[in-house]
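Would you kindly consider the sequence and fold I have copied below?
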Amino acid sequence: MHVPTLEEVAQTAGVSRSTASRAINGGSRVSPEAQTAVDDAIARLGYIPNRAARSLVTRRTNSIALVVPEPDERVLSDPFFAATLRGMNASLKDTDLQLVLLIDKPGETSGRIGRYLRNGHVDGAIVVSHHRKDDLESVIDVSRLPAVFVGRPFKVFPGLRFVDVDNFGGGVIATQHLIARGRRNIAHIAGPSDMTAGEDRQAGWRHALAQQGLPEGPLAGGDFTTAAGIEAMEAILAEDPTVDGVFAASDLMAVGAMRVLAKHGRSVPDDVAVVGYDDLGVAEGAIPALTTVRNPVVRMARHATDELLTTLGVFSADDLSEPPHDVTSTMAEDGHTVLAPELVERSST
């Protein structure tokens, strides 16, 4: 007895395989006409979905991993990760795929998580917040697992794909904004040096100052958290209390810096102007409201997930959402997409 296949349903309905799959699984990104055509084809052919049988044949797990090499307290408290999940869910809501969250401490990922990825527990992965010593690029390369990085990896092998924002450009426009406000002794609270975002934003700060012939102000590092911003700002004021501008590599660090400035009687923005980075809700609610560089995390995560689902055959190229309008560099052949940063001006400058 012949058992109808999904391909036959799609052919009979006159739609793509991915559209037929979404119609069968209740996806919302299906036109009423396509849904009716697929329903009619199912009735005519007697097609019965069998996920278990299909998994045995295709060796698919019907799941993808979000890999976050960070401790759980950071994942639960940083708005970056909530934004990442929102972006991924926007793509996954039209599929029957499950999301597996893999959290670990930096440096341990290539062990436990690496084994998990290599052993076929998921069909693909989205990797965020990766650090140099995690070496997740090599794990992905050896495992041959379809994956997309959110954020530029340190190692870019042929076939390795990523979606990022222009962090160097973001550092430039943040610093240029402070210079345009008349600030001449501009400090930087840098992100982790073992993350490309931290390196690139710091490089943008240096470049903007050099362009204007200004000396580099005090520099202190942090891990993108409020506590790190507090510690860094204390160190900066101890080194040079005449600082009149601060570019912090995250909004959380900028908020910590403003708390320290207030404690020391320094008015923001009258005495010290402050710019952050991310614009994921923290900046707008800060006191004063924080000028920042928008990091389009939701859109990056959605774009990365769409790319992964296309690779897995869940989406076709025609099914993808509209590409971001502010792409500064798109190399489809190499799988690299870089979005343009945007300055959001508020009261802190």
